[in-house]
Queue: 2 jobs
Job 1
Amino acid sequence: MDFIKLYLKEIVIVCVWVLIIYFIFRRIFGKKVYGQYSDEILKYETDDFILTGKPDRVLEKFGNLIIYEYKSGKTPKKPYEDHVIQLGAYFILFEETNKKRPDFGIIKYNEKEFRIENTDELKNKVLNLIQDYLKQTSHPEFIRRNHNNYGKCHHCRFRSECKQSLVLNKVPAHDI
Ligand code: SF4
C-alpha cells in the first residue's frame, strides 16, 4: 500500500498512457467485429432460399464498418468478378444478421487490395444472381453443366435425373 501511495501519480500517468495508446491503436487498426474464429454463421433466409457465409474479417475503423476478404494466388489488375459478388453476398448477410449495413469491403490479394463499395447496384446484382440460380436449378431439366469434373457428378445428388451428368451409371448417389 505504501508503494501505491508513494507512486500513485506515476501509476495514474502510466494508466492514462496505456489507455491513450489502446485507443490510438484501435482507431488505426480497427475494432474486430467479426473474424474467422467467430462461431456465428451469417444467415439470410427468405421463403425461396437460405444464404449463409463467414467473411474472413469485419472491422470497425474510423466509424466505418468494413468487411475484409483475403485471397491467395495471383494478384489481378482488378478484382475478379466472383470475388466482388462474394463480398456483395457478405454485405447482405452481415446486414441481415446484425441489422447494420457495412460501408464497404476490401478484397486483399497478396500484392494489392481493392476497395469495393456496398452499393444498391451490387446488392441487386447478387440477389438477381441468386434468383437466376434458383430458376436454373428448379428442375433437373434446367441444369446446364458448367464443369468437366467427373468426381463432382459422381457425388452429386441430382446425378440420377441430370441429363448432363458426366457419370453414365445413373444410380442415385445416396444408394452407393
Ligand atoms: S450430375 Fe453433374 S452436371 Fe448434373 S447437376 Fe450434378 S454436378 Fe451438375
Job 2
Amino acid sequence: MVIDASEVRFDAAVRLEGGRVASVEPAEGLTADERETVLAPGLVNAHAHLDLGTAPAGSPGESFLEWVASVMEARGERSPAEVAEGARAAAGRLLETGTTTVLDIDASGVAGMGLSDSPIRLVSLREVIDGSPAERNERTQAALELAREAVAAPASERRASGLSPHGVHTVSDELLGELALLARSAPVATHWAETPEETRWMLEGSGPFADWLGPSPRSSGAERLRRAGLLDGTLLVHGNCPAPGELALLAGRGVAVVHCPGSHLFFSRPGFALGDLRAAGIAVALGTDSAASNADLDMRREMRLARETLGVSGAEAWRMATEEGARFAPWAHVTGRLGVGDAGDLVRLRPAQGVVAARRDGDRILDLLTLSEPAVEGVWVAGERIEG
Ligand SMILES: [Zn+2]
C-alpha cells in the first residue's frame, strides 16, 4: 500500500522518474509480499544537531544550564574530524530509520565535512550567536560573517543552507536585524521558549539565566523576532513555555513550532501545550533534537512518543513527521507527500502483523504504523535507492 498523512491507497505502486514521483497507480499483479509492505514519503526531521553525533545522552544533570555546559565542553574536546565522523553517523542513523530530509543546526561548520557524501537531503542551518540580547558586541561581526558565508553556499538537489540564530535569548537585536536582511528566502530556525527559566528571564530578567546572559530584553522571544523582521516563516524550536500572549503574535505568520518528544522526555519537561498552539493556528512539526538529549535519532520513535504523550492520531503524527517539517525545506517538491511531481523520497516499511489485519481502514493503519515503529526495508532519496 502507498500512504501519506492524507491518504492510504491499497494495492498501489509508485513510479519514480527523474528523481520525482511520476505516478501512484493501482498496481496489478502485486506479490503477497508487496501487498504487505507500505510505501510512504520519507520522514522529515525538523530539528537535529548532527554535529553532536550519536553518542548516547548522559544524564540531564542538575539544571538545564549545567547540561548545556557539559554538552559544549564535550563538543569542544572533539577534533573536527571526530565531529565530522559523528555527523556522518548521525545522518546514517536517520537514513536507516526512514528519515530522508533533515533540518540540521550546524554550530561548528565542520559537520558538512562528514556529510559531503551522505545521500540524505540536508538543510544546513548555520548557527550564529553573539551571546546576549543586549547590544552589539565583539562577537557580533564574526557571527554575521558566518551567516553571510552560509547563505552564499550553493544549493543543490540534496543540499540547502539557511540560518539559525541560536536562540531568541542569546542573539543581539542588531544581529537579528542583520540576519533578517540576509535570510530573505533562506530557511530560518531558532530555539524558543524551551524552559520556564528562559521565559522568566526574557520577561523579567530574574532567575538563573541572569548570570549567564546579563540584562534581559524584557520582551518575549516572538516580540523580539517580530521587531527584527525575522518572525515570518521561522521554525521555532521547542516552544514549551510561551509567555502570556505570545502565541497570538505567532498566528498568521507562517511559523511552525518543532516539538521534540524524545528530548522533552529526557528533560522531564511538563506537558507540551499542543492544544494552545492549535487553537492559535500554529503548526507543529516533529524533530529528534540531538543525541545529547535523546535516546535515539529515529523519527519513528518520535511519532510513537507524540502519539503516547500528546494524544494525536496516527494521521496527525504522520503529518507532523513529514509535511509540517517539509514546508521549511527550500525545495518546492519536497512536500512530505507522495503526489505526482513530489520528490522521490520514500521509505518502505514492514508493518507489524496487526497492521495487515487492519487493511482497508486507512486511519487504523496510520494509527498502528505510528505506534509500532515498523521495520525500514528500503529508503529512496531523490529517486535513488540508498544502499546500506
Ligand atoms: Zn536544538
